[in-house]
Design goal:
Blueprint (H helix, E strand, L loop, with lengths): L1 H35 L28 E9 L11 E10 L6 E17 L2 E18 L6 E18 L2 E18 L5 E4 L2 E7 L2
Antiparallel strand pairs: 1-2, 1-8, 2-3, 3-4, 4-5, 5-6, 7-8
Length: 201
């Protein structure tokens, strides 16, 4: 009986030693594995690498200024051989710092010419006031000017001949819509008038 009890005690002792040895041999590996392979934190990338963007191209409308060279038919001057056109320049400029680029300007044209013959004189006088309004717009490199030129004024034709005096006045106003590409020397013309665009550098 004592032999059986001793044998069972030795068996439990050996089994305990075996379990302790097994536990000791497993624990370092588990700890080491847990430390050596930490769970990585997921990284989220949005949109990839930032793209390089070119700086925006400035509109040539910004700060624009120039003048319209004007030719206006001076009534019946040409029929007697006088210079047919009143010529002048009307300055304009952009008056807004941001789009839409608003244009304003104005000026006047004065015409005077006289034909002198043995029979008498033929005189033409014209005074016109011109107002320019409109807008400069379009993609950079292809801008356009959309303008309205309002003309108002008066003209006088005076004929002085042997025993004859005749005065033929005219007064009125007219509005002309004009479109120019934004380039030096661009021209718009119609019956009795022509405008040439000049740009300040």
């Amino acid at each position: 009986m004592k032999s059986f009890t001793r044998s069972r005690s030795i068996t439990f002792l050996l089994l305990g030693i075996l379990l302790i040895s097994l536990a000791c041999s497993l624990t370092p590996d588990v700890v080491s594995t847990a430390i050596a392979t930490p769970t990585p934190t997921p990284t989220v990338v949005f949109g990839g690498a930032p793209e390089e963007t070119e700086p925006p191209i400035d509109s040539r409308c910004a700060g624009l200024s120039g003048a319209l060279e004007v030719q206006i038919l001076a009534g019946p001057a040409a029929v007697v051989g006088l210079e047919p056109f009143g010529v002048g320049k009307v300055p304009f400029s952009v008056v807004s710092e941001t789009p839409p680029y608003i244009i304003q300007g104005g000026g006047s044209i004065t015409y005077h010419d006289m034909l002198q013959e043995d029979w008498g004189t033929y005189t033409v006088d014209m005074d016109l006031a011109l107002t320019v309004t409109g807008e400069c717009s379009g993609v950079p490199g292809a801008e356009t000017l959309d303008l309205t030129v309002d003309l108002s004024g008066e003209q006088m034709v005076a004929v002085r001949a042997q025993g004859f005096e005749g005065d033929y006045p005219w007064s009125g106003s007219h509005s002309l819509p004009l479109r120019f590409p934004l380039m030096e020397g661009a021209t718009a013309e119609g019956e009795g008038w022509a405008f040439v665009l000049h740009l300040n550098q």
